Amino acid sequence: MSNYFNTLPLREQLNQLGVCEFMDISEFADGVEALKGKKLVIIGCGAQGLNQGLNLRDSGLDVSYTLRKEAIEGKRDSWKNATENNFKVGTYEELIPTADILINLTPDKQHTSVVNAVMPLMKKDATLSYSHGFNIVEEGMQIRKDITVIMVAPKCPGSEVRAEYVRGFGVPTLIAVHPENDPQGKGLAQAKAYAVGTGGHKAGVLLSSFVAEVKSDLMGEQTILCGLLQTGSILSFDKMIEKGIDAGYASKLVQYGVEVTTEALKQGGITAMMDRLSNPAKIKAFEISEEMKDIMRPLFQKHQDDIMSGEFSKTMMEDWANGDKNLLKWRAETGETAFEKTPAGDVKISEQEYFDNYTLMVAFIRAGVELAFETMVQAGIKPESAYYESLHEAPLIANTIARKKLFEMNRVISDTAEYGCYLFDQACKPLLADFMKKVDTDLVGKNFNEGKDGGVDNRKLIEVNEAIRTHQVEKVGAVLRQAMTAMKAIKTN
Amino acid sequence: MERVRVRPKMQRPKVHIENLNFKYQSNSVFDDLSWTIQKGEQWVLSGISGSGKTTLAKAITGLADYAGKIEINFDNEIQLPAKVSLVESWYQFKNVEGVANFYYQQRYTSQQAKETLTVKAELAHYGKENHLAFADVEPILNALGFAGLKNSQLIELSSGEHKKLQLVKALWLKPQLLIIDQPYTGLDVKSRESLNALLNDVCAEGVSLIIISNDEELPICINRFAKITGGKLEEISALEKAFTNSNYELGEIPEFLKQAPIYSSGLIAKMVDVNISYGEKEVLKNINWEVRAGERWLLQGPNGSGKSTLLSLINGDHPQSYANELYLFGNKRGSGESIWDIKQHIGLISPEFHWYFDANSTVLESVASGLYDSVGLFKTLPYSKKAQVDELINFFGLTENNNDLLNTLPLGKQRLVLLARTIIKNPELLVLDEPCQGLDNQQTAYFNQLIDKVCSNGMTVIYVGHFESQLPSCLEKRMVLENGEVKEISEIKNKNLTLKETIKDFELTI
User: Nearest chain A Cα to B375, which residue?
Assistant: First the structure.
C-alpha cells in the first residue's frame, strides 16, 4: 500500500484538499430516508460505537454490531455494551454479508487488519463508512471498486454524541465521500442521512474530503490542540515553581485554566477570549503572542510539510511496526512531569482569576490557534476545515486536561494525535527557552493588573483590537458558530 | 455578614438570628428577619414558593451571603459533631471524571465503563471524610429500604433514591443542627414513616432539627412552627391546612388548550409481557398494560418499584424497549419510527427530567422547547407559535420571568415553567411523574385543576403521585407496581369523597 495522496497529481491533490462546504440545514430535508430499511452493521462497540449506534437506532434505523469472535466468546465489555442495550451481535462471518452499510468505528491502528478481514465478506455494492481518513489517505488502503466509501466524523467524544442527541440537538459533524469509491453516486446521500441519524445536522455539518480531513486533522491535533497545550501547560507550571508560586495553586491554575479560557474561545472566538483580559493585559498578551508566533512559525510549517509529504505518517507507522516503542516511552515521560505529579491545591480560583493570573496561556492559545489556522490555509486547506481542526476543538481537548491533566489528555486522544503531540512538544520547548526566560509572575501565577494603573494608549488598543478581530479565523468562526451556539458548556469545575 | 460561633454557656439559644437582610437581584427576600431557636426545639419552616425558605437555610449553613447576624452555639456536653448540615432539595452529582453533563435518558443505557461512583463508594468516601463507622450506616440503609442499592451507580438512582441517599448521609453524621429542605419529596408513604421515626431518634440524641416543608405528616418530635411571609419570620401554632382543589379558582385557559387533541390512534400504549433487566437485576417483570385514548391513569408503587422505567418505555427513552413487545400510538416499537416520532405525541415531566434539564435556558426557551421535545430551544420560533408560548406563560403567571434563566429562579417556579412546557403542544398524552414536587399547596391545587380541565377536553393522562393531597380529581383508573410487577389494575370509584382515603389505605398496606 502506498500513500494515496502522494499518488495523486498536484491538480487532484489541490482539488481534494479544497473540498469544504458548510451545509445548510435545508440540505437534510430527506432525513434518514437514504438509510431507511437498510442494514447498518457497526464494527466495534466502544464509546463511539455504542453511542452512535444508540442514536442511529433511535432515529428509526436498523443497527447491529459485529465483533471479533474472541470478544463475543470472552463476553468482553464491547459485547456487554451491545447486548445489554438489546442490539443484535454477531461475528464478522454472520453479520457482514448482510450489511448494506458497514460502519468501521475501531481505533485507527487496527484499520488495515480490520478492513482486510471484512472486505471479502462484504456484499456487492455495499457501503463502508469510516470516521477518520487515515487508513485510506495515509496507508493507501484500496477498497473493492463496487463498494462505496464514506466518512462521518462527529467532532466530539462518544458520550457527548449521545448526550446532545437525547436532548434533541447534536454535535458538529464532518462528512465526506471518497472519490475513488462512489460507483453509484449514492455516497453523499448516505453520509447525509447518517449525519441526521446521529443528530449532527442540527449542530452543523461540514462537507469535506478524506484528504482534507486527514491533512487538517493531523495538523490541528499535533500543533495547537495537543502539542501546544502540553508545551504551554508544562512551561507555565515550571515557571511558577521557579518563581516561588505555591505548587498546589500552580497545579490548579494550569489544570483548569485552559478549560476556562477556551470556553470563552468557543463562545466568541479569539476576540471573546482576549476581551476577558483588562486592556493593559490584552495588549501585553497580544504582543507576546505575536512574538511567539514568529518563534514557532517554522515549527508549525515543518509539521504541516511532514503531514503533506507523508513523512509524519511514515515515521509513525514505523513506530507502530516497532511495537509503539517511542510512543510508550514518551507517554511514560509525560506521566512523570512535575505538573502531572503535583495535585491541584484546595484553593478557590474564580473564573476571572483564571484569565487575570494566566495571561500567558491566553497568549499561547491565540498564537497557536492563529498559527495553525494560517499554516493550514497556506497549505491549501479551506478556512472552514482549518477552523474546525484548530479553534473549534481546543475546548474539547482542554476539557480532557481539566479532567485529569496531560496524561489523561494523551490517553483520551487517538494514538496518532498523541504521537504527533510528543514530536511537537519535544521540538517546541527548546525553541521557547529564551522567550520563557523573560516571563515573570505577572504573566503567570499573579494578577497582571496588580500594581498597574490600568491606563493604555488609545491608538495602541484600537490597533490591537483591529488585528485580533479582523483575523480570518474570526470571520469564518463567526459564521460557523452561529450553527452551534446552543451547545451546552462542558464544565468540570 | 457576621457569623458568631461562641463558647456555649447555659441558657444560650442554639441559633440566634437578628436583623437578617438579603436581596435577590433588586428584590428584598429578607427584611430584618429574626429568629431564635432554643435547645430542645424542633422546628418546621413553611411558606409559599419563593418566600426564601431555602435561602434562609443556606444562610444558616453558611452557604449564602447575607447582611445581619447569625449566631450558632454548639453544645460541648453532647458527643455529636459541632456542625450545621443542610440536606438540600436539589443535589447535583458528577461522573467519575467530574463532569455533570447528563440527560435523564442516560440512566437507562447500560454502559460497561463506570460513569459514576457506586452508592457504596460514595458512602465510603463520605464516611471517611467525616470519620464515621460504616457499621452505623447499615441500620439507616435498612430502615429506608436502601440496602439493595449499594452496588448501583449514582446515575442509575431515581430522584427519590437520590433524596434518600442524602438523608442517609445526614442521619449517619448526626450534626448538632440539621436542616432538611423538603425531606419528603419523592418518598413513598412507607419511606416517609421510616424517615420520621429516624428523625425522632436523632432528635432524642440531641440533634436540633429544622424541616422545611408544607406537609402535614411530620415527626412527632416537632414542637415549633414558623412561616416566612413578607421577608419576616413569624411563629404559627401549626401548619396551615392544604388547599383542596375546590377553593382555588382556575382562570380562563388559553384557547389552544380548549381544542380536543387529535389522536393518531385509539390505542396510546400497549405492553405485552414486557421485561426489563440490567444484568441479573430485574426492573420490570411481565408487564401487561393498555392505555386507551382519553383514559386518565394513576400510577403508583413504592420507590424503586419500576414506575419511571415503565414511563421511559412509553416516552421512547429506554434502549431495551426494542427487545420488547410494545405498541405506541398504534405502531409497534422498533418498526422504523424514531424517538422523535413518539415524543411528538407526549408532554412529559418527571423529577429526573427537571433535574437534568438545561438550567441555562430562559423561561421562554424552556416552554417553547416543548414544541420540539428538546431540552433547550434550538430553533427560531415561528410567530404563531411564539404567540401561543406567550399566552401560556401568561396563564402560568410567569410573564415577568420570560427572559430569566431557569437557574436564577426558585425550584417551585422552575417547576411551573416545566409544567407549562408539558402542555404547550396540547399533546395527546400527558405523562406527569410527580409533577407537583416543589410547588406549594396553592400552586399544586391550581395545576391539578388545569389537568382536570384539559382532561375534560379529552387528553390522556398518566399521573404518578405519592401525595394523596396532590392528585387531580379526574383520575379514573389505577395501576400499582410492586417490585417491578403489576400488583393491581383497578377503577378509582367514588373519587370525590374517598380518593384520598382509599389511596392512603392502599399505600399503607404496601
Answer: A167
Helix, coil or strand: residue B331: strand
Element counts in chain A: helices (H) and strands (E): 25, 9
Chosen for mutation from B63, B102, B110, B373 (greatest number of chain A CBs closer than 10 Å) is B110
The per-residue pLDDT of chain A, averaged, comes to 92
Spatial distance between the Cα atoms of A397 and A392, rounded to a whole number of angstroms: 10
Is A168 within 8 Å of B374 when comparing Cβ atoms? yes
Name which residue leads in pLDDT, B90 or A235.
A235
Cα separation, B449 vs B445, in Å, equals 6
User: Beta strand pairing status for B485-491 and B477-482?
Assistant: antiparallel
Beta bridge partners of B478: B298, B490
Residue B49 confidence (pLDDT) above 90: no
| B112/A81 touch (CB, cutoff 8 Å), yes or no | yes
Regarding beta strands B346-349 and B429-433, do their DSSP bridges make them parallel or antiparallel, or are they unpaired? parallel
Model pLDDT for residues A304-355, shown as the tens digit of each residue: 999 999 999 999 999 999 999 999 999 999 888 999 999 888 888 889 999 9
Gyration radius of chain A over CA positions:
23
pLDDT, one tens digit per residue, over A46-93 is 888 999 999 999 999 999 999 999 999 999 989 999 998 999 999 999
In this complex, which of A60, A85, A488 lies closest to B109 when CB atoms are compared?
A: A85
pLDDT value of position B240 = 65
Q: How far is A84 from chain B (nearest CA, A)?
A: 6
Check residue B354 and give left, alpha or beta (phi > 0: left; psi -120 to 50: alpha). Answer: alpha
Where do the domains of chain B lie, and which CATH numbers do they carry? Answer: 2-241 (3.40.50.300), 263-345+427-509 (3.40.50.300)
Reported as type and span, the H/E element at residue A65 is strand A62-66
Residue B375 burial class via C-beta count within 10 angstroms: exposed 0-12, middle 13-18, buried 19 and up: buried
CA distance B95 to A213: 32
C-beta of residue B477 within 8 angstroms of C-beta of residue B491:
yes
The one-letter amino acid code at A263 reads: E
Alpha helices by DSSP H, listed for A88-171, are 92-95, 111-118, 134-137, 158-166
In B354-373, the residues whose Cβ lies within 8 Å of chain A are 358, 360, 369, 372-373
Q: Hey, what's the cell of A236?
A: 507555565
B271 and B288 Cβ atoms separated by less than 8 Å: yes
- Expressed in angstroms, the distance from the first to the final Cα of chain B is 49
Percentage with pLDDT > 90 across chain B? 48
Residue B457: pLDDT over 70: yes
- Evaluated on CA atoms A480, A485, A486, A489, the torsion sign reads positive
The question of ipTM being above 0.90 is answered as no
CB A6 within 8 A of CB A310: yes
Most confident of A313-317, B181-185, B228-232: A313-317
Residues 6+ apart with CB under 8 A from A471: A270, A370
**Grid cell in block for residue B398:** 410567569
Rounded Cα–Cα distance for residues B434 and B448 (Å):
12
Place of cell 431564635: B36
Q: Is the CB of residue A30 less than 8 Å from the CB of residue A65?
A: no
Report all structural domains of chain A as residue ranges with CATH numbers, in order of start: 20-208 (3.40.50.720), 212-482 (1.10.1040.10)
- The single-letter DSSP state of residue A282 is H
Report, as an integer, the average pLDDT of A95-113. 94
Whole-angstrom distance, CA of residue B113 vs CA of residue A47: 9
Residue B442 pLDDT level (bands cut at 50, 70, 90): confident
Q: What confidence score (pLDDT) does residue B115 get?
A: 65
Fill in the DSSP letter of residue B290: E
Smallest CA–CA distance from B344 into chain A, residue = A168
Note the pLDDT of residue B150: 84
